[in-house]
Design goal:
The chain is mainly α. It has one domain. The protein contains 13 helices and no strands. The chain starts with a helix and ends in a 6-residue tail after the last helix.
Length: about 300
């Protein structure tokens, strides 16, 4: 018996949800690595090296598609340049610079604003509308994020000023919001791996002179096992796998719903801190993670339920 259209659409939605769950896990690890290696691997070197690794990983699978779609890239070159500049180059550089002076927890907290930024920018510039379920999901999941980053007392957030590091990470979230919205506007027939490779090439061109400036200023990588493993991790998981999965997920569920999954960043960040750094797990963290997951589930309910 063939599946009904409704069932097929629901399966497509759940496939998109699965695709969008792994990127926050990989990105949470990226924040932890960026903070842990702040004195060993300078921000621009970490960003440039990760994309060199990503280029090497993707090239065997994507270069033919990139060359085939090259004439199409010319049709939306400025959009492609914007994607490379915001989501590939600027976001990561700003985050790594921000993590020089702010904590990974603060960085992930500020990233929880991304769904609201996507919704606000989408409504302001692109006339996108949100369903009541999505709005409710945003509120519930953001409440969970607030519980985690405030250690169970949201009132403490009101007394914290925005440091330079926090400001840089916040600007990075604005870049990512535009990246998500612009990615949705790329024609669906464009091969996503080839598109990712093209973005990396452009980003490396943009980052190269900045890396030269960083090295000329006296900041160099302290090579060792930890720095090599850190660069390898950020080059494969948050760079290649996360971007491919996120791009596919955006095409399936839409930019606003895809952005909601950024709320999973502090959830995975907490789990990584507990398992890798042996930090204690508190009740407010468990409650916050439950609220985040409830918000994600609420916003992704099938229409009519």
């Amino acid at each position: 018996m063939s599946s009904s259209p409704a069932a097929a659409g629901q399966k497509a939605d759940w496939a998109g949800i699965a695709m969008l769950t792994l990127p926050p896990l990989f990105w949470a690890g990226n924040f932890i690595v960026g903070r842990a290696m702040r004195d060993t691997v300078p921000p621009l070197a970490l960003s440039f090296d990760r994309w060199v690794i990503a280029f090497c990983c993707l090239s065997p699978f994507a270069w033919r598609a990139m060359l085939r779609d090259l004439p199409r890239y010319r049709e939306f070159f400025w959009r492609l340049l914007g994607l490379a500049a915001t989501g590939v180059a600027a976001f990561n550089v700003l985050v790594y610079f921000g993590l020089q002076s702010t904590s990974a927890a603060n960085g992930m907290m500020l990233n929880s604003f991304i769904p609201l930024l996507i919704a606000g920018i989408g409504a302001l510039f692109y006339r996108q509308r949100l369903t009541p379920a999505q709005i409710a999901g945003f509120i519930v999941s953001f409440f969970g994020v607030t519980l985690i980053v405030s250690h169970g007392d949201p009132r403490t957030l009101a007394s914290q000023g925005l440091s330079q590091g926090d400001a840089l990470v916040f600007i990075a979230t604005v870049c990512w919001a535009f990246y998500t919205l612009w990615l949705r506007q790329i024609p669906a027939e464009i091969d996503r791996l080839g598109l990712m490779l093209a973005q990396i090439v452009i980003a490396l061109v943009l980052l190269a002179p900045l890396l030269a400036w960083e090295m000329a200023s006296g900041r160099h990588v302290v090579w060792g096992t930890n720095s090599l493993l850190a660069i390898a991790y950020v080059g494969v998981f948050p760079s290649v796998l996360a971007f491919v999965l996120y791009g596919a997920g955006v095409m399936r569920v839409g930019a606003a719903r895809a952005g909601l999954f950024i709320h999973l960043l502090p959830v995975f960040g907490t789990l990584l801190s507990v398992t890798l750094l042996r930090e204690p797990l508190h009740g407010y963290q468990l409650f916050g993670m439950g609220a985040i997951l409830a918000g994600v589930a609420w916003a992704n309910r099938p229409a009519g339920r």
